[in-house]
Amino acid sequence: MTILVLAEHDNASLKSSTGHAIAAAARLGGDIHVLVAGHDAQGAAQAAAQFEGVAKVLLADAAHLAAPTADNAASTALSLLPGAYTHVVAAATGFGKSIIPRIAAKLDVAQVSEVTAIEAPDTFVRPIYAGNAFATVQSKDPIKVLTVRTTAFDSPKTGGSGAIETIEAAADSGLSRVTGAELTKSERPELTSARVVISGGRGLGSSENFKLLEALADKLQAAIGASRAAVDAGYVPNDYQVGQTGKIVAPDLYIAVGISGAIQHLAGMKDSKVIVAINKDPEAPIFQIADYGLVGDLFALVPEFTAELG
Amino acid sequence: MKILIPIKRVVDYNVKVRVKSDGSGVDTTNVKMSMNPFDEIAVEEAVRLKEKGVATEIVAVSCGVAACQETLRTALALGADRAILIETDVELQPLAVAKLLAALAAEEKPELMILGKQAIDDDANQTGQMLAALLDWPQAAFASKVDIAAGVATVKREVDGGTETVEMKLPAIVTTDLRLNEPRYATLPNIMKAKKKPLTTTTPAALNVDVAPRLTTLKVVEPPKRKGGGKVADVKELVAKLRTEAKVIT
Amino acid sequence: MSTYYAPLAEMQFVMNHLAGLEQVAKLPGFEDATPDTVAAILDEAAKFATQVLDPLNASGDREGSKLLEGGVVKTPAGFKDAYLQYCDNGWNGLTKSPEYGGQGLPQLVATAVEEMWHASNLAFDLCPLLTQGAIEAIELRGSDALKKKFLPRMVAGTWTGTMNLTEPQAGSDLAAVRTRAIAQGDGTYKLHGQKIFITFGEHDYTDNIVHLVLARTPDAPDGVKGISLFVVPKFLVNDDGTPGARNDVHCVSLERKLGIHASPTAVLAYGDHGGATGYLVGEENRGLEYMFIMMNLARFSVGLEGVGISDRAYQRAVTYARDRVQGRAVGLEKNAATGAIIDHPDVRRMLMTMRAYTEATRAVAYVTAAALDNAANNPDASARAKAQAFADFMIPIVKGWSTEVAQEVAALGVQVHGGMGFIEETGAAQHLRDARITTIYEGTTGIQANDLIGRKTARDSGAVAKAVVAEIHKVAATLAARSEPSLQAIGVALAAATADLQAALDWMVPAYGQRTRAAHAVAVAYLKLWGLAAGGWQMGRAALVAADQQAAAGGGDPAFLHAKIATARFYADCLLPQASAYARTVLHGSESVLALDVEAF
After folding, report:
1. In this complex, do A138 and B172 lie within 8 Å of one another by their Cβ atoms?
2. Is residue B185 within 8 angstroms of chain C, CB to CB?
3. Of B26, C72, C485, C536, which sits most exposed with the smallest number of CB within 10 A?
4. ipTM of the complex
């Protein structure tokens, strides 16, 4: 069994998602090869080679792979396939989601998306209906083509020394090209569609103090919300309000900071998948629905939380 | 320019789905069905391109059971000119749908196909990209802006941490992200007119496509219920648990 | 948090199986109303109600419409956009004639759609509702010139309409109307006077507002026979259709109200600056007659408001009852309990009451709507007349009973929430406040009841009433003869209510002629008895249909059918028995109602 992992990188370095994809590959068992398709991507290739369990890094270098289009990225991977590979794995990020289905289609095999658990080399668990159900699916195709959820697989240790082998890049299809990229780091996701929401309550004490949440939100690419009490106190505008008369949110992670948990607030966030509460009052009702309650001074805990995320 | 818009009939996004007690799947009997929300965005984008004079004809296509006709009527009410149903009772997986659409594209010869980035039932996020591969067309998945001029589609697409701009030679595939547009409501007069627009039916057999499922669903379960009341001692434990137990941060 | 979702499955069940949509769609002119098209219309309307109107309901209530400098009215944030979108999407013209840009769909379809507007945002819908009344008045009795000038824009919603009846001294009694209209010799009139309680009498939605105004010409006879109807636009309309000079009608204040805060209720001053130019509708002195033609539909719509608010209150209460954890459920094993208050038997009692009343009032209203469609478009003259007589009889019941029921349902909605229900932010209180107007405007419950006992019951010596009683009796007998215990139980309860109804009817017909004050003293009890029995009738029919569908293979959603029968059974067991109490009041209560002298109060 040999697994091909598609590396996500910016040539100079590897994106952290690649480590999670390698971790998933390790769970499958078998040799792991990592394809780094890029331009002047020695740095990324070396980083990939350092993950434990990586037997070989395949480095394809071509100018048109510097910022590859989906079809060019897929073509280079396909030049190795079917070959000896039993599995093709990438992280379920924008990169993996764009390329992996092209590979599956060209191989005439099914793809399994957003795998959260591996039960057997041909059997995978994945969320459906926005995570309201989890399906266990089995693929009988000769090659299993997967994208995996990064949060479901911990990055392996580094310290390995896989070999780096240069391979031929597939020719530029010339069908499309990437003409620009724009990083929008500061732009917050929308409250109602964000994967992570951090809300502040009256416990924050002032409009100024909401900045504490911003640093944490930057780290988690989170949207910022507020309880009605914080809105009424004028700390933040009306459209921040989460709750009965505000917005209804159901993110993967909801962090309530300095919010006591009035029922009107709970009504707006109780369907969140994981709830964290930070509050100095151990009796605050928010702790009753929080998965992870942290009792203490938010002015100390929030910066600590931000720092801990690195 | 002809635009082909594949649409899927899915459980309405407001419905709280229930897993069947025998674990064989999600109970979809007698549940309200609607057009996949990302496909609504695709239809809207096509209609806007037509209103701008870029597109001349919009053809909506759906693959599945006879009731998909209702969803196609919705697309017609929103502005599609005609509709095609590829009718089958077989459970269709993304690869099969991509093959059906590729076969139809060979007949219809559109210059652009816009698809929703994923369906909110299986959340696969595959069909558009697979279709592009089968047709050997370029793709721009997760579009937030589409411009068409002189045989080239310039698409701004959402990537992790920002956007990327792609130029594609037509014909091409675009898949829609949330921010591409805000779909309109069908107007009452257009709902009435939709009845009279042409809707034709074909089958996988007529298109010579094998749609047999490739993946077998062994079981479907509900996600674990949150208990609440859990406490952690400090920030270190919190972050560790969010990483390893809840697996919501990396 | 509760979001309004139109009960589409329930609405379609009632339309298809109780109101007879299929038959209505066969009437000439309604051929487009096929089940698939109607389903598409309801789907889209439901989306609009949920996504556009419902989110504005609470904020509109909090913000309210405001009167600014210079008689300008500002509606709450979002309302104008929602209105423009509503018009763009063509909803304003649903039932209107295609000649003026409408879709000419049946009242039955409009009824389901309107219920969604009422439920999601009553205050919002009042503007289109009043426009609809004004359109109808002009369409029925206006000159071709008036029709041409005003109708296309009013049907499109580009201009809105109002109904100006009430004056400070002329409320329910329009004989006291004093607004003067003086002919100018050029076909126009100058109006002077003050009108109050004018819903959306001034607003910021559109460039022009078309007021329909009741006024007296100088030589008009006294009383209701001397009232004429005029069109008075806020801006005069040039011959090319563009708005011209500002007319002399001005908003001088807005009322502060218990509910429907988003809806501006205007005091309009006519002719303070020389006279407001008006155009006569139809003939002089026949204004009230014209008003009554439209009144039927307006009253029906208000009844439907009761249905909509009841459903909204019910949905909110259910959401809360499922979520709110409080106390331990008596007599439930721990693993059988949800832990929420919906486990408590008394909360169930309240929710079932709300649900059963909502379903019953809806069914009665939709069946009446189908009769209105037949009255309008059935090719057979005798079928038309029969449908009209039935609709005329039912309308005071739909109006009076559905809105009275809505008071109880909305109050229960607050009660389910406990203390939170009394807190405005929760939202349940708004439904109660908004519901409160519905038993008052377009004729109070008392006026509906007087109409029911007089023109609708006594005038034909109870002929139509008796025919309806016979129909109810038939359904009761069919139910009682069934083998299913639930249906039998419903049949027994309905038969008892039918007997009560018959007794009340037998008392009322002679009493109305001989003991007028006594008849009027128990008129509301008579109306409520009719409402309860009519509700039982339709719930009984629904149970029969549901049971038949259960028996047939693949006949429908098992959960829906089970709930339908259970709700009908609850109605029969827990609500319908009130019929005997009302019957007793009708037969024996009038004397005590009138027993005290005025001085004793």
Report:
1. no
2. yes
3. C485
4. 0.93
Taking contacts as CB-CB distances below 8 angstroms, the residues of chain B near C9 are 30, 32
Using the beta-carbon criterion (under 8 Å), do A244 and C323 form an inter-chain contact?
no
Mean pLDDT in residue range C548-564: 91
- Read off the pLDDT of residues A188-221 as tens digits, 9 standing for 90 and up: 888 877 889 999 999 999 999 999 999 999 999 8
Q: In the CATH scheme, what architecture does the domain C8-155 have?
A: Orthogonal Bundle (1.10)
Which helix H or strand E contains B3, and what residues bound it?
A: strand B2-7
pLDDT digits (tens, 9 = 90+) for C387-413: 999 999 999 999 999 999 999 999 999
Q: How far apart are CA B71 and CA B83, in angstroms?
A: 10
CATH of B2-225, one of 3.40.50.620, 3.90.1300.10, 3.90.79.10, 2.60.120.200: 3.40.50.620
Tell me how close the Cα of B41 comes to any Cα of chain C, in angstroms.
15
Task: Look at B192 and C32 and tell me if their CB atoms are within 8 Å.
Answer: yes
- Write the CA distances from A149 to A5, A52, B194, integer angstroms: 14, 20, 41
pLDDT, one tens digit per residue, over B195-240 is 999 999 999 999 999 999 999 999 999 987 777 888 999 999 999 9
- What is the spatial distance between Cα A168 and Cα C110, in angstroms, rounded to a whole number? 67
Q: Confidence class of residue C1 from pLDDT cuts 50, 70 and 90?
A: low
Distance CA A185, CA C262 (A): 41
For C221-293, strand residue ranges (E) read: 228-233, 235-237, 243-246, 249-254, 265-270, 276-281
DSSP C577: T
Domain covering C161-285, topology: Butyryl-CoA Dehydrogenase, subunit A; domain 2 (2.40.110)
pTM attached to this predicted model: 0.91
The phi, psi pair for C269, rounded to 5°, reads -100, 125
pLDDT in tens, C456-509: 999 999 999 999 999 999 999 999 999 999 999 999 999 999 999 999 999 999
Q: Where do the domains of chain C lie? A: 8-155, 161-285, 444-601
Task: Report yes or no: B192 at the C interface, CB cutoff 8 Å.
Answer: yes
Nearest to B138 among A130, A176, A193 (CB): A176
* Interchain pair B11, A196: CB under 8 A: no
- Taking the CA atoms of residue A249, residue A255, residue A258 and residue A259 in that order, the dihedral angle to the nearest 10 degrees is 30
Element (H, E) at C215: strand C208-215
Count of A-C CB contacts under 8 Å? 20
Distance CA B87, CA B100 (A): 11
Q: What does the domain layout of chain B look like in residue ranges? A: 2-225
